[in-house]
Amino acid sequence: MDVSYLIDDLNDHQRAAVSAPEQNMLVLAGAGSGKTRVLTHRIAWLMQVENIPTYSILAVTFTNKAAKEMRGRITDICPQQIGGMWIGTFHGTAHRLLRLHYQEANLPEQFQIIDSDDQKKMVKRIIKSLNLDEKYYPAKELQWYINDKKDEGLRAKHIQVGYSQQEKQRLQVYQAYEEACQLAGLVDFAELLLRAHELLLNNPSLLLHYQQRFRHVLVDEFQDTNKLQYAWLNLLTENNSYLTIVGDDDQSIYGWRGADVENIQRFLREKDNPVTVCLEQNYRSTGHILNASNQLIKNNSDRLGKELWTSGEDGQPIAIYSAFNDYDETRYVTSQLKLWQNSGKKLAECAILYRSNAQSRLFEEQLMAQQIPYHIYGGQRFFDRLEIKDSIAYLRLINNHQDDAAFERIINKPKRKIGNTTLDKIRLCAREQGYTMWQASLFLIEQKQLSAGANISLSGFIELIKRFENETSELPLFQTVDHVIRHSGLHSMFENEKGEKSRSRIENLQELVSATKSFVIPPEEQEMSEVTAFLAYAALESGDNQADEFDDAVQLMTMHAAKGLEFPQVFMVGVEEGMFPGQQSADDEVRLAEERRLCYVGMTRAMQKLTLCHAESRRLYGQEKFHSPSRFISELPEQDIEYIRLKTQVRRVQQPTVKQPAFTRENQDISGFRIGQQVTHPKFGEGTVIAQEGSGENSRLQVNFMGVGSKWLMTAYARLETV
Length: 723
Ligand code: ATP
Ligand code: MG
Known about the structure:
The chain has 723 residues and is an alpha/beta fold. It folds into five domains: 4-103 and 193-281, Rossmann fold; 112-184, Orthogonal Bundle (Arc Repressor Mutant, subunit A); 318-378 and 547-644, Rossmann fold (3-Layer(aba) Sandwich), CATH 3.40.50.300; 383-540, Orthogonal Bundle (PCRA, domain 4); 677-722. It is built from 28 helices and 21 strands. Strands 9, 10, 11, 12, 13, 14, 15 and 16 form an eight-stranded mixed β-sheet that branches. A six-stranded parallel β-sheet has the order 3-2-6-7-1-8, with helices on both faces. Helix 1 crosses helix 2 (35-48) and helix 15 (386-399) packs across helix 16 (404-410). The structure holds adenosine-5'-triphosphate and magnesium ion (MG). Residues 35-36, 220, 564 line the site of magnesium ion.
């Protein structure tokens, strides 16, 4: 078979990696150098040249989006079906293993995944049941503690504590939490990985089976693996299999979650004859973008050190836009998007990247107002919305009566006269008897330990769930969902909420029915039932699959979520001290270095055009904050950047005389104000217009307010009125 097409359009180093004999291999290289490309071509090569069967290949990456893309790229270059190949995220792959071997993993068949929100609620309940004061033992902190330990591979029984009372209590919470989850058949995200690791460790024959099956394990974005993930990979490949890892130490951005760049060194130390391939040519970005990114990351010490070059053009310098405030920032970005669109290019080629999800709101508003379609990754996922979680909790409880998290969520939703007293009794009974909430309820009802009224209400709830179970057992999933939403009373409860919110909740419920109707069990989960696969999808899916994914829309996401992706035009927004790097990172060398890597990740997503924006003032938590440009901007070489608005330009127009000639008609029409005019502002009171700058949408006014002083305001947003 002619396989030259797999290596023809690769450079020498890439080709060497793709066509290497079977071996352990590290591909270490900077952003945009073709690592992911090498990985996918390598997989195709192994199948076609080394005759490795598809089922002997396991490819792992970090996000659902990346996994999906990888599957697509491999399908494109392979003539044969790749159905048997395992391609997925770490969490997805661990989940699959646990489903296949739930007995060996000591889980009930109907075990469910809980998200971070449910986890926090569980922890809260445990804290309460142990009579600890939440002031000293905040649920969030304990949740972190538990996840941290799990990421290190440690169960409560492995942890030694000294004399510290606090340490002891924490451990007690961890232990009680473990027990409660085990009883209810619940598995959190960190548990997926820990259990999948233990599954292999504790079952030698199973381990051997998978070691023999997966002859090649390949991992993208390896720099972000944590200890446990590494241990799992290592175990899986320690018996004559090969591990190929691809990564970039400069793009390690999950240190705060326990990711450990040391894993790269560990791999080199522990694996047999690992071969390292370095790639240095960048194919993604223009010269200016690449050079500036290289310079930025040089400010970090402790790098493995590598430099990228490109044979491409320098392109346009990186634009630095200094906005007056956050509104101005969004307006500038949207105006640039319009220009891009008007020149006949696709909006989908543009991305807006921010440090935290909360920053998306203003952009959403502005994009909506300007009728620019957009697509947000992350943020509040569809499956995280209250009404969706409620509906899904019904599904979960029908599926597994012992699911405490689901039980608590819907026991009194809609209201069915089950108050806190009854709930506390159930909790207490569960704790004392070692029961789940469901079992405790049955016990209390049978023993007549509740008031007559509570007994009736609780029995009613139990009967309802059992009835649903019978009524829906033969129905396809979407009809089950529809049935449950209508007959549980959820639908009418949300309908009665009234207002805009109510409408959107009802729409979302309908959307949930459509989502279940169009749900197709993914190729790697064929062995699961429809409802199980769907519940897993609802828990693990990260908002990648919104309906408008294929529309031509601007992409909005955090810099973390943008890892591995590329876009012709990128806007990084909020590049300010106090935002990026954030306040807490500024004084901490380790965290600052991680923020800088994140900045490197963000910048290197851009192919042709990169703009960094910062705002001089922005509203945060209801307060006006003043930020200076991020230090990262000052670390970029002058020759690679271009300031869109120089501060001095602004100052030049700040003190015009009152005698200045009248505005042109055009200006006056747009701004509606003239210099010398008396105006009022809802917050600053009365003042005089003393300067005007910009035109059209970008028009700004300087107003001297009595007792407040002079302020620059965006004309369109200032809510000024003439006196
Ligand atoms: P990141 O670190 O951001 O994940 P990466 O190293 O994985 O980047 P890829 O996404 O594989 O880089 O490649 C970057 C871009 O360069 C892609 O558009 C890819 O198709 C292109 N590319 C890679 N190698 C070559 C090549 N030899 N010739 C032409 N284009 C290439
Ligand atoms: Mg990549």
